[in-house]
UniProtKB/TrEMBL annotation:
TPR repeat residue intervals: 30-63, 72-105, 114-147
Keywords: Repeat, TPR repeat
SUPFAM superfamilies linked: TPR-like
InterPro entries reported for this sequence: TPR-like_helical_dom_sf, TPR_rpt
Name of the featured protein: Kinesin light chain
Pfam families: TPR_10, TPR_12
PANTHER family (alphabetical): NEPHROCYSTIN-3, TETRATRICOPEPTIDE REPEAT PROTEIN (AFU_ORTHOLOGUE AFUA_6G03870)
Domain of life: Eukaryota
Length: 169
C-alpha cells in the first residue's frame, strides 16, 4: 500500500520481540531484517536498506549452508541497492554471487535464474557494455520463453530490453 512508516513500525515491533525471545542468529530475525531492508529500499534510503540487508545476510551466512537459495536472495537484494545507487561494480559482485548459487541449486530453467541473468544484463546495459548486456538478456529470454506463456509481461519486457540494447550497439 506504500505506507512505509507503518510497515517499519510493525517490522520494528516484530524485531524487538524476536530479539528478546530468539537466539541472535535465528532465521526469523534474518527475515525481519530483510523485510526492513526492503522497506528502506522502496523508500530510497539505500544506506539503511544496505544496513538491514547486511544484517540478514550475516545471519544467513552463519546459519545456512554456503549455497542456500536464501543467501542468493540476500545477495540479489544487496546487488539491487548498489544498482540503484549507480555502484555497478558492487552490484555485479553481489548479483554474480546470487547467480552462482542459483546455478548450483536450481534447475536450468528456473525463474530465479532468469531474474539473475536479467539483473546482470541490466547492470551491463547501464554501464554501456551492450554486448554483455545482450548476452545476459538473451539467457533471460530463453528461460522465460520456456517457463512462461508467450503473452506474459516478463517475456515482453525482456524482448523490449533486448531490442533497446540492440539499438544502442
Amino acid at each position: 500500500m506504500g505506507d512505509y512508516s507503518k510497515a517499519l513500525e510493525f517490522y520494528d515491533k516484530a524485531v524487538k520481540i524476536y530479539e528478546k525471545t530468539l537466539p541472535p542468529n535465528h532465521r526469523s530475525l534474518a527475515t525481519s531484517y530483510n523485510n526492513i531492508g526492503l522497506v528502506y529500499n522502496h523508500m530510497g534510503d539505500y544506506s539503511k536498506a544496505l544496513e538491514f540487508y547486511d544484517k540478514a545476510l550475516k545471519i544467513r551466512e552463519k546459519t545456512l549452508p554456503p549455497n542456500h537459495p536464501s543467501l542468493a536472495t540476500s545477495s540479489n537484494n544487496i546487488g539491487g541497492v548498489y544498482n540503484s545507487m549507480g555502484d555497478y561494480s558492487k552490484a555485479l559482485e553481489f548479483y554474480d554471487k546470487a547467480l552462482k548459487i542459483f546455478q548450483i541449486t536450481l534447475p536450468p530453467n528456473h525463474p530465479s535464474l532468469a531474474t539473475s541473468y536479467n539483473n546482470i544484463g541490466g547492470v551491463y546495459n547501464s554501464m554501456g557494455d551492450y554486448s554483455k548486456a545482450l548476452s545476459f538478456l538473451e539467457k533471460t529470454l530463453a528461460i522465460r520463453q520456456k517457463s512462461l506463456p508467450p503473452t506474459h509481461p516478463h517475456v515482453k519486457t525482456v524482448i523490449d530490453n533486448i531490442d533497446y540494447v540492440k539499438k544502442k550497439m
